[in-house]
Amino acid sequence: MFAYTFRRLLITIPTLLVVIGVVYILLFSAPGGPFDSERVVPEAIQAQLMAKYHLDQPYWKQYLLYIGQLLQGDLGVSYRYADWSVNELVASALPVSLTIGGLSIVLSLVIGVLLGALAALYRNSFIDYIVMALGSVGSVVPSFVLGPMLVLAFAIGLQWLPSGGWDHFSWRFMVLPVALLTLINVSTLARIMRASMVEVMNSNYIRTARAKGLPMHLIVFRHAMRPALLPVVTIVGPLAVSCITSALVTESIFSIPGLGILVVNGAANRDYTLVLGLVVLITTLVVLINLWVDLMYAFLDPRSRA
Amino acid sequence: MHSLTPAAELERSPWRDALQRFRRNKAAVTSLVFLIFVTALCIVGPWLLPHAYDSTDWDALKLAPSLAHSHFGGTDESGRDLLVRCLVGGRISLMVGILTTLTSVALGVVWGATAGYLGGAIDQVMMRIVDIMYAVPYLLIAILLVTVLGRDFYLVVLAITAFSWMDTARLVRGQTLSLRKMEFVEAARAMGVSTPRIVLEHIVPNLMGLVLVYATVTVPGVILTESVLSFLGLGIQEPMTSWGVLIHDGAQMLDSAPWLLILPALMLSLTLYSFNYLGDGLRDALDPKDH
Amino acid sequence: MRSTRRTTDVSTSRLLEVKKLNVHFRTPEGELQAVRDLSFSLQQGETLGVVGESGSGKSQTMLAMMGLLAPNARAEGQVIFNGDNILNLPAAQLNRVRGPKLAMIFQDPMTSLNPFLTVERQMTEVLQIHQNASRGQARAASRQMLEKLRIADPLRCLKSYPHQFSGGMRQRIMIAMALLSQPDVLIADEPTTALDVTVQAQIVALLRQLQQDHGTSIIMVTHDLGLVAGLSDQVMVMYGGRVMEHARADDIFYNTHHPYTRALLESVPRIEQADDALLAIPGMPPSLRNMPAGCPFAPRCGRADSDCQFPAPLSLVTDGAADHRVACHHTGHPV
User: Is the pTM of this model over 0.95?
Assistant: First the structure.
C-alpha cells in the first residue's frame, strides 16, 4: 500500500510542475499579456510585480523562483489591486466555497448511494422510476439553467428562500446553491450506483452468498456494498472536480463570495496574476483529489494492489 | 470491436447496415430531424421575422410572449425581440459548436493517428501530454486563455478547442494501434508506400465511422462550454449574442420577465438532448455489439 | 422445523424427494420450459449423478431446489427435504435449510468467491450465522476443514484473498466452505468443468473421501458420464429438460436402455479403440425456443419413428432392476 502511494506521488508531482509551468509561461509571454509594451501599468503595481515575479530574470529562473514561492504558500499578488495579495483574497473566499462544495458532495454521496442501491434492489418499482427520471434531468439540463429555475420556483414563486447573496454562513443562503449542486451530482451518482449494484447482485459470488443461506441484509452490506461502491469511488474524483467548476456557475447565479466569483471577476478584470494564482491553487487541489481517489480505489479493491 | 476492412471495401455493406440500424432507432432519427429543423430555423428565421436582433423598441419593453403582437417570443428590457435574438444566438452557439468540433476532432485525429502509428517513445510522450491535459480543470484554463487572449469569436473557439481534442486523440490512437498491425497496412508498407500516405489513405478512412460518432458527441459538450463561458460573461461578447449570453441576461430578469430565461434555456436544453441521442444512435448503428 | 406442509409420505428415510418439478421462464418470446416433470429421491449417504449436455435443464433443477432461480423464472412441484416442502419458500425460512443442511458448490470457482473479502471472513460467517459460533470457534473449525481438504498452510490461506489462489485451490475452498456446517446434502454443479484433468481427479477423490467420513449425500451434476462412474449410486440422464433414463449406476452402464445414454457412452473415447474417428452424436441439443413436440431426442435418434412425435413417459423397464426407468417408446429391452 505504501509502495503504491509512493509510485503514484512520483507521477503526480511532475505533472503538477509541468502544468504550473505551462500556465505561467502562457500568462507571462502571451501576446496581449501583462507585459506587452502597449499596456500601461500604474507605477506602484509595476514595481511590485517586478519584485514579486522577478521579471528582470530569464524565464527559467522566473519559473524556479515562482515554484519556490509557491512551496512557501505564497500565491502572488493581485494585478489590479496593489494592496491585496492573492493569499488574502483566497483566505476569505476559500471557506465559503469549501462549505458549499463540501456539503453538497457529502449530501450527494449519501443520497446518491442510497437511492441507487434502493433502485437496484427494487428494480422497476416506483423508486426506480424516480431515480431514472432524476438521472435524465440532472445530466442533460445544464446547471446554469437549473439554477435560475430553482430560483424562479423557490425564491420568486414560493418565496421560501432568498434568491441569492450571503450572510456569514447563515443557512438560508446556503440552501439553494447546495441543493443545485446536490441535484446535479445525485443524478449521476444514483445512476452509477444503480447500474453497479445490479451488476454485483447478479454476480456469481452473490449467488454463492445466497446459497450459503445468508440473510439479505448481510449479503447487501457485507458482500455487495464494497464491490458496488467501486465505480462510485472512481467518480468521486471527477465529481469533486466538477463541483469546483460548477462553483464558478453556482456562485455567479447566487452571488456567493467564494473562489468561483474570484476567478470570474479576476478574469473579467484581466487580473492576470490573481487568475494565475487561483488557477495554480485549484489545479493543485484537483490533482491531489485525483491522487486521493486512486489511493482510495487501491485500498478498497485488494486486486489492484498487485 | 468495430469490424475493420481495407479502405477499398468500405463502399459495401458496413455502411448500409449501419444506416439501416440507425433508421430503426426512433429517438436518434427524431433527434436528427429536430436538429436539422433548429439549424434551418436559426439560419433562415431571422430573415423572415420582422425584427432585427439588436433593434430596440422603447414602446414594447418587457412584453410577455403572445400571438397578439408581432413579438411572438416577447421582448427584453430594451424592447428587443426575444425570438429573433434566440435564433441569432442559436446561429452563434451552433457555429461555435461545429467549428470547435471540427478543429478539435481534426487535432485529435492527427495527434492520435501520429502517436498510434509512430509508436515507441513518441507515442509515450504524446499520450503523457494527453494525460496531463486531462488532469487540468479545463474550464479554468479556458477562462485563463480568454483572460489573456481576449473574447474575440475565434479566440473563444480556440480556447474551447484546446480542451476538447483529447477524447478523440485517445480513441484514434487506440484504433490506429490495432489497424497498424493489420495485414493491408503491412502490405502497403512492403510495397514502399510512404508513411503519410499510409496514414491518410488506409488508416484515416477506417476511422471515419468512429470519428463521426465522437464528433457528434463532442458538439454538445462544446456548446455547453461556450454557454457556460458566456453565462459567466467570459465568452461571446456584445453585440454578438449566444444562448449562454441570453440565459445570463434572462437570469437577471427572472422576477419580472421569466420568459427571457425560459425560451433560450429550452432551445439549448433540447438541442443538447438531441445531440446526445443522435450520438448514441450513431454509436449503436456503427458498433452494435458495444452496447 | 414445524411446517404445515409436512407430507403424509411414510418413507421419511428419504432425505430428499423431488416430485414433478417444472421450471418455466418468462421471456419476451413467450414462456419457455427448462425442466419438465422431474422426480427423484435421495437417501442419506447416497450419491446421485445428474448427466446431460448444456441446456438439458440439469443446472436449473438444482437452482430451483436452492431457490436461486432468476427473477423471471417460475418453479412448480415439490421439493421435500426432511419431510418439508422447501420449493418456493420465502428466503427467511429457506435460509434455515439452504446453507447449513443443503449446500451447493458451483461451476466457476474463479468468480464464485467474493474477491473483496478474505477467505476467513467468507468461511466463518457460515458458522457464525447458522450455529451462532464465536469468531474464534468458527476460525478453528474453518482451519480444520481446510486441513481436511489438504490445503497447505491453512492459517495463511484464511488470511488471504481468493484472487491469490489457483482455480483448483479456490474450488477446494468452496467445498470446505460448503461442508463447514456439515450439510446433509451437497449439490455439486459441474465442480470440475473449469479445472485441469489432474485437479479434476483430486477433487473427485476428495469428495468421495468426505462422503465416507461424514455420510453426506452428494448430487453431482456434470456433462461427463465418466465422472459419475466411480462416484454415484444412482444416475439420472437428462435431455431437453426431461429425464431420459434414471437407474442405479451399474444398470445405466451395463444395462443401458435409452438411445441417448447409449450414444453418450459410445462417444467417450477409449484408449484401446482401434479407429481414429471420434464418435459424436450428430446434431445439436434443442434450444428452449425450438423444443420438439414429442421426444426431445427424436431428431438425433437413430431409432426414431412416427411414435416419437409424442413424448415418451418415464416408465419402469420390464427386463431390468426394479427401479430402472426409461423415457423411450422403444424400450423394454436394452439398447
Answer: no
Q: Are A206 and A219 in contact (CB under 8 A)?
A: yes
The alpha carbons of chain A give a radius of gyration, in whole angstroms, of 23
Pairs across A and C, CB distance < 8 A:
77
Helix (H, G, I), strand (E, B) or coil at C324: coil
ipTM of model: 0.85
Dump pLDDT digits (tens) for B142-177: 787 777 777 778 878 888 888 888 888 888 888 888
Whether C51 and C238 have beta carbons less than 8 Å apart is answered as: yes
- Up-side HSE of residue B11: CA atoms within 13 Å toward CB? 1
Question: Which has the closest alpha carbon to A49: A32, A62, A68?
Answer: A62
The Cα of A204 is separated from the nearest Cα of chain C by a number of Å equal to: 5
Give the Å distances, CA to CA, from C99 to C93, C222, C325.
12, 21, 31
d(CA A139, CA A142): 7
Residues of chain B with a CB closer than 8 angstroms to some CB in chain A: 131-132, 135-141, 143-150, 224, 227-228, 231-234, 244, 247-248, 250-251, 254-255, 258, 261, 265, 268-269, 272-273, 276
Per-residue tens of pLDDT for chain C, all 335 residues: 444 444 444 444 678 999 999 999 998 878 889 999 999 999 988 999 999 888 888 999 999 999 999 888 999 999 999 888 999 889 889 999 998 999 999 988 899 999 999 999 999 999 999 999 899 999 999 999 999 888 889 999 999 999 999 988 899 999 999 999 889 999 999 988 878 888 888 888 888 888 888 888 999 999 888 788 878 899 999 998 899 999 998 888 888 888 888 888 887 766 666 666 667 777 778 888 778 778 888 888 877 778 788 888 888 877 777 788 888 887 755 65
Q: How far is C107 from chain A (nearest CA, A)?
A: 10
Cell numbers that stand for A231 in this block: 465505480
Class for domain B14-53+71-290, per CATH? mainly alpha
Phi and psi torsions of C80, nearest 5°? -100, 115
Rounded Cα–Cα distance for residues C3 and C15 (Å): 16
Delimit the domains of chain C by residue range: 261-335
Q: Do chains C and B touch (3 or more CB pairs under 8 A)?
A: no
**Of A196, A198, A208, which to mutate for an interface test with C (greatest number of C Cβ within 10 Å)?**
A208
User: Where along chain B do its domains lie?
Assistant: 14-53+71-290
Q: Report the C-alpha gap between B111 and B173 in whole angstroms.
A: 8
Classify residue A155 as exposed, middle or buried by CB count within 10 Å of its CB (0-12, 13-18, 19+): buried
Given this model, what pLDDT does residue C102 score?
A: 93
